[in-house]
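Suppose you are handed a protein chain with no further information: no name, no annotation, nothing but its sequence. What can you learn? This example shows the usual starting point.
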Amino acid sequence: MRKVWLKRQGRIKASLKGTYVHRILGESLFRNYLWIQNRRAIIGGLALGVFISLTPTIPFQMLLAALGALRWRLNLAIALAACWITNPFTLVPIYLFSWKLGCFVLEEIFLIEGLFDFYLLESGRFIGAIKQSAYLWTGSLILASFGALVAYGAAHLIWIMIERFIKTRPPASGRKS
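A reasonable first move is to predict its three-dimensional structure. Written in structure tokens, the prediction is:
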């Protein structure tokens, strides 16, 4: 099983040579710790990818995930795959929920309307754009933090359950019939 996985990772690395990502990130893209298969790297890559996918950084999500995986030595493939939570089908519902969450937090809890009126005396399109951006980013950061924590905890529990299942499974008999 591990040999098959390592062979597949080698093919992925070979297919990345000479690509746009390889030209941007250089040879650091092929460091072994980015492709390692351990609990910390895989679960951390999943949490990073979920966090980035739930923020409004659509054109840069995969680049941010790659840079984060490089920086924190997480599994690159898992981080990039998790960025696809926000795809063309899920983008609108996720961002709409984030915007509504940001509206609730900033208007109902923190009463930011007065803050905008105090600092920006002019009203108009510019203040409207700033307000909408603040709503979206606030809701997205709250949702992304919560999503990353849930993904980290769930993946950690699943990893522990799989380890326990493997330890308690009876060994296979050595003979074939």
